[in-house]
C-alpha cells in the first residue's frame, strides 16, 4: 500500500516539475490555478448573489447598483444577471 502512495507522490512531483520547466522560458504563462480561474469568464451572477462576489452586505450591494446604473448587466426573462468577468473589470476600474 505504501508503494501506491509513493507512486502517486512521484507522479505528482513529476507533473509539477514538468509544468515549471515548461513555463521556464515563459514566466507570464498561466499556472494550473490561473487556468481554473478563467473558467468563470462566462459565468453569470444573479442579482441576489452579487453581494457575495463583491464581499459586501446585501444593502451595500443594492445601493452600489442603484448609484451606478452603468454596471455591466444582462436582463433575461425579467431577471438581472451580472457577468463575473465584466463585473470584476468594472470594480477594478471604479476602485482604481
Your description of this structure?
The protein has two domains: 1-30; 40-96, Arc Repressor Mutant, subunit A, CATH 1.10.10. The chain is built from five helices and three strands; from the N terminus they run ααβααββα. It has helices at residues 2-22, 32-37, 50-54, 58-67, 84-95, and strands at residues 44-46, 74-76, 79-83. Strands 1-3-2 form a three-stranded antiparallel beta sheet. The relative contact order is 0.11. The mean pLDDT is 83.
For the CA atoms, what is the radius of gyration? 20 Å
Report the biggest beta sheet as strand number plus sense, adding barrel if it closes.
3 strands, antiparallel
Which structural class do you get from the secondary structure elements? Answer: mainly alpha
Number of domains: 2
**Backbone shape:** elongated
Per DSSP E runs of 2 or more residues, the count of β-strands stands at 3
Would you give the CATH topology of the largest domain? Arc Repressor Mutant, subunit A
Biggest sheet strand line-up = 1-3-2
Strand % is 5-15%
CATH class type of the largest domain: Mainly Alpha
| Terminal Cα span | 54 Å
The amount of helix comes to 55-70%
Mean pLDDT: 83
- List low-pLDDT spans: none
CATH architectural type of the largest domain: Orthogonal Bundle
Question: What is the succession of H and E elements?
Answer: HHEHHEEH
